[in-house]
Amino acid sequence: MNEYHLGEIERRFAELIWTHEPVNSGELVKLALETLGWKKSTTYTVLRRLCDRGIFRSEGGVVTSLLSREEFDARQSEAFVNDAFDGSLPRFLTAFAARGRLSDEEIDQLQALIDSHRGKKS
Fold this sequence. Notes:
The protein is mostly helical. The chain folds into 2 domains: 62 residues, Arc Repressor Mutant, subunit A, CATH 1.10.10; 35 residues, no CATH class. 64% of the residues lie in helices and 8% in strands. It is built from 6 helices and 3 strands; from the N terminus they run H-E-H-H-E-E-H-H-H. Strands 1-3-2 form a 3-stranded antiparallel sheet. Strand 2 and strand 3 form a beta hairpin. The radius of gyration is 18 Å and the shape is elongated.
């Protein structure tokens, strides 16, 4: 299983944590019950899975993220490009653009991104 892939329910749970962190584990149980209809055991099972994958940490009864929402999304996107397009961002963009015409705003945003990274060494 890709450590940077979350199913729909896992993503909704992760969003609860990112929105409320740092969050007491008891409060997280209440939030999961109210939002997802989960029992305490389900909440702790899914939390343990996400902690084992290095996304969150539960320490001293407090749950925090090890990866911000933005960091997680960036890693998930990178994993997708690596898996689906052999790591080629140009191949991904070509496939994405083939869906139809890019708007002028999208082109401007992509160009600004390219310009901001031109000459940067990773």
